[in-house]
Specification:
By secondary structure, the protein is α/β, with parallel strands linked by helices. Helix 4 links the parallel strand 4 and strand 5. This is Alpha/beta fold hydrolase.
């Protein structure tokens, strides 16, 4: 994939220029950079960090190519953003859900460009992850072809959730994202054991992904996990007053104390 193939990405910057940079990577399909803009990004900027948010390819106000949605394409987009001249020094990466998988994959490919990684409700890319994600995306696309689906979502989950799903429909119906995720490049498991980047993983108490915490602590050389009581997968949006201080502590000094191995 060459630079000419990279899509146009919508990027937002807040906070002081020339300071330590925190890059926020959102989730897939029904997500975009606003999930950070209205939650934790202002607190990071107020603490003196230069904060970069962007809409991933196919999302928000970024370009939506018909193909090119393997994990490595998202990782290459992030690499291109970090080539900008206003990004100086290693950055802190924060990723929510699928964005955390992108952040972990980027750290594995470019560890020298990373100061730390914090992921929220995320997992590293594996064959099982790719199959699960592809199935979820394909299933969502199929259900949205039923004209009764969106009205049901609005009645059950509210107008905001229905609007997010409506925004995701062109991505699910007009691109090869489900097939591409299934065909993603998956790193060999032994590579993770050599990753020297500090990682913090945050999970909701009631999330299906909470069981990932002990596996990550065993797999990664420098990994800490945190659990947010009373919440499921929507930790970032559901409790920013809890996740925000966790992020501030992590990018400030928390990432510097290497996790003790058991």
């Amino acid at each position: 994939m060459t630079a000419a193939c990279l899509p146009h990405l919508n990027v937002e910057r807040i906070g002081p220029a020339g300071r330590e940079t925190v890059v926020l990577v959102h989730g897939i399909a029904t997500d975009n950079l606003t999930s950070y803009y209205f939650t934790v990004a202002p607190a990071l900027a107020a603490a003196g960090y230069s904060v970069m948010m962007y809409d991933q390819r196919g999302h928000g106000r970024s370009e939506r190519p018909p193909t090119g949605y393997r994990l490595e394409h998202f990782t290459q987009d992030l690499a291109a953003l970090l080539d900008r001249p206003d990004i100086t020094g290693p950055v802190h990466l924060v990723g929510n859900s699928f964005g955390g998988t992108v952040a972990l994959d980027f750290a594995l490919c470019h560890p020298d460009r990373i100061a730390s990684v914090l992921v929220v409700e995320s997992e590293p890319p594996t064959d099982a992850w790719a199959a699960k994600m592809s199935g979820l995306l394909a299933g969502s696309a199929h259900r949205l072809r039923d004209e009764r689906t969106l009205p049901w979502i609005e009645r059950t989950y509210g107008r905001h959730e229905a609007r997010l799903v409506r925004w995701a429909t062109p991505l699910l119906h007009g691109t090869t994202i489900a097939e591409d995720i299934a065909a993603s490049r998956i790193p060999a498991e032994e590579r993770w054991r050599d990753l020297e980047v500090p990682v913090c993983a945050v999970y909701g108490e009631y999330s299906d992904l909470a069981a990932m915490a002990p596996r990550l602590e065993r797999l990664l050389p420098d990994c800490r996990t945190r659990q947010v009581a009373g919440h499921g997968h929507s930790v970032l949006v559901g409790t920013p007053h809890t996740v925000g201080p966790l992020m501030l502590d992590w990018v400030g000094t928390g990432h510097r104390a290497k996790a003790a191995r058991t």
